[in-house]
Every structure is written in structure tokens, then in C-alpha cells.
Amino acid sequence: MPASKPLRIALIGAGTMGRQHQAVIARQPDATLCAIADPGDAGRAFAAELGVPAYRDPRELLAAERPDAAIIANPNALHVASALECLAAGVPALIEKPVGVSLEEVATLVTAARRHSTPLLVGHHRRHNPLIGRAHEWLADGVLGEPTNVTALWQLHKPDDYFAAPWRREPGNGLLHTNLIHDLDLLRHLCGEVVEVQAMASQRLRGLPYADTAALMLRFANGALGTVNASDSASAPWSWELTSGENPVYPQQSGQPCYLLAGTAGALALPQLRAWRYADEPHWHAPLAEEAITPDAGAALERQLAHFIAVARGEAVALIDVEDAARTLALIDAVERAAASGRATQPSYPWEA
After folding, report:
1. Strands 194-202 and 213-220, how do they pair?
2. Buried residues in 15-33 as b, exposed as e (16+ CB within 10 A)
């Protein structure tokens, strides 16, 4: 397809994330929204407002409209089914995270994706943020030396109306699958694979069928140890949403870190991109020199869409493919198993069996 022709993108799911994607598409001259699939009346009204065709079933949309690409932003439990429908139709798709809810269904998708040439990109959009790109480069350059410790915080307060949609109160949603999966994906991206998990989780504050607060301990393949402390019921400023300034709907808490990475040669705080290193030999009586940089500007969702357009046109390889995203979901599964058993647990990758 000519590069000058806007990519015709269908939107599967017109909820909160679907509407965010629509707004990004509207600002991208290289793409255009061609249709919406959503079973609800609100989705049909949204399509009418935008002047695009509306369908209740994604398969009907794919057959009738034959879009160049699709963005899957429906409820978590429908992600794998919609992705399989896109593969069957030969339509490249951007799948909102999580890639799926259970490892079994995601293993099916991994197998199907291996058999098809149609590309799939998973929407762990933070990897497209220039902050993360620069941090990844810094770490590759050895700013930490030998990694020793990682600390991650995700603590904020979701309002009660967030849970008004019934699907958000079902298993496969909530703190772990919807939120902490982003942080675990970034820790994998920045620090390497996790080989062992210990966890405690609590449902006491909201009483929903998933955790509202969790404390994790991680062992990375490189030998570093990490902790993750998370709650969606805490009145606190320590989360990527509130510290990074990535999404303007969240008031930025400037100066507050949410990731702290340390090693034998130095330390790094994110999202501030502040590094500390000794001028000479490391010694606790010597002062640490601080260095900070500002990366190039660029919104993560806009950069993700531009990347997806290139992937759909065959001009780039997906930064986060289904197998990569499945390994992050495997961490969520390991966290749940570790919290339930009280024992150290290893991530499981059934598609590799």
C-alpha cells in the first residue's frame, strides 16, 4: 500500500481506551478511522457522532469493511478472541494490554500468531515513551554496573465510578491485569527476565474478586532482586501515571520517583532520568555525583500508533509481539499463584512446551 495513503483502522471496543485510541488516530494524518465494533448503544452512538459505520460483532466489521488494520480495545476477556478473528481475516492488529486473561488462551494465540504472517502488536505503550527509550540505552551502557536492587511503586486511588462497568469487577481485571502488568512489563524490558516470584495480595478494601493491594519480591535472571509495592486504593503520588506526565488526565506529581534501580556502579531514578555515580571508587563516605537528562519530547500513544502503522505496512517489526507480552502475563500468573500458595513461584510459559 502506498505510504501516502492513510491506513484505514477499525476500532474494536469503544470504551475508555478505545476512545483514547480514536483521539490519537484523529491527530495522525497517516491513519483514518474506518469503522467501530462495539455491542453497546454508547458505542453505536459514538460511531454515529464520528460518521463511521457501526457493528456489534467484530467479525461482521472485518468481513464488511476489510480494514487495513484494527485496534482491539474491548474488555480484557475478549482480547484473544478478537485477535484470532483479525489473524483469520489477515488484518494486522494492535491489542490493548493485557494480551489476554489466562496463559492457556494466550498460548493458543501465540501458536496462531506463529502460523500467520499477519503482524500483531501488543499495547504496552510505555515502552514507546522516550523516557523509557533513553533509560534502556543508559542501562545498556552500564550505568548501574552489576545490577543489585530494583524498587517499583504503583500507588494511587481509583474512584468508585471506575468500577461502574460490570466487566471491570470481574476476574482478569483490576490491579494486576490492568495496571501492574504495565510496570512488570517495563521491569522486564529494563532489567531482564524474572525467574522467581514471591507475593502477598489483599482484597480487603474493595472486596472484588482480585487484589486491590499487593507486595511482590522478584528475582531477576541477572541475579538482581526487586520489590514491587502496589495499591489502587492508596492516596499516594508514587505511580507512573502520576509521576511521568505521560497522560494529561492525571495531575503530575513532579519530582516523585516510581522506579529506583541500583547496581555496583550507580543508580537510576525514573521517570526523572536521574543517575548517581561515584567520581572515583565507590565508597559510602564519598559523595555521589548526580546526572540528569531530558529525552526528546513525544507522547507514548502517538509514538505507538506511528509504530503500529509501520508494522501494519510491513515497514517495521513489532516492538512488543504476542510472545513478548505473553511473558509479562506469565508474571501476573506467577504473582497470583505465589500469593495464593505463600511459596516462591516460577513463571510458566506453556507455549514453549
Report:
1. antiparallel
2. bebbbbbbebbeebeebeb
Question: Within 10 Å of residue 253's Cβ, how many Cβ atoms?
Answer: 17
CB 63 within 8 A of CB 3: no
- What CA–CA distances, in Å, run from 135 to 154, 173, 227? 19, 29, 19
Contact 131, 270 (CB under 8 A): yes
pLDDT of the residue at 1: 43
Residue located via cell numbers 510459559: 349
Burial of 227 (0-12, 13-18, 19+ CB in 10 A): middle
For the beta sheet containing 259-263, the strands, ordered from the edge strand earlier in sequence to the opposite edge, are: 194-202, 213-220, 225-231, 147-155, 259-263, 266-270, 274-278, 288-292
Spatial contact of 182 and 310, defined as CB atoms under 8 Å apart: no
The pLDDT value recorded for residue 23 is 97
pLDDT for 3 = 53
Cα–Cα nearest to 291, from 310, 308, 309, 272: 272
The three cell numbers of residue 232 are 489502587
**Tell me, what's the pLDDT at 314?**
97
Residues of the chain where predicted confidence (pLDDT) is lower than 70: 1-4, 297
Strands (E), the chain: 7-12, 31-37, 54-55, 69-72, 93-96, 120-123, 147-155, 194-202, 213-220, 225-231, 259-263, 266-270, 274-278, 288-292
Name residue, grid cell 487484589: 211
Please provide residue 211's backbone torsions phi and psi, each rounded to the nearest 5 degrees.
-70, 145
Count of helix runs (H) and strand runs (E) in the chain? 11, 14
Closest C-alpha among 340, 301, 348 to residue 194: 348
* Widest pairwise Cα distance in the chain: 70
- The C-alpha cell at 27 is 491527530
Predicted local distance difference test score (pLDDT) of residue 70: 98
Q: ω into residue 350 within 30 of 0, thus cis?
A: no
Rg of the chain in Å (alpha carbons): 21
Closest listed residue to residue 328, CA positions, set 127, 150, 130, 74: 127
Give dist(CA 329, CA 226) in Å, integer: 18
pLDDT in the model for residue 264: 97
At residue 2, the pLDDT reads 45
Q: Are 109 and 137 in contact (CB under 8 A)?
A: no
Q: What is the pTM of this model?
A: 0.94
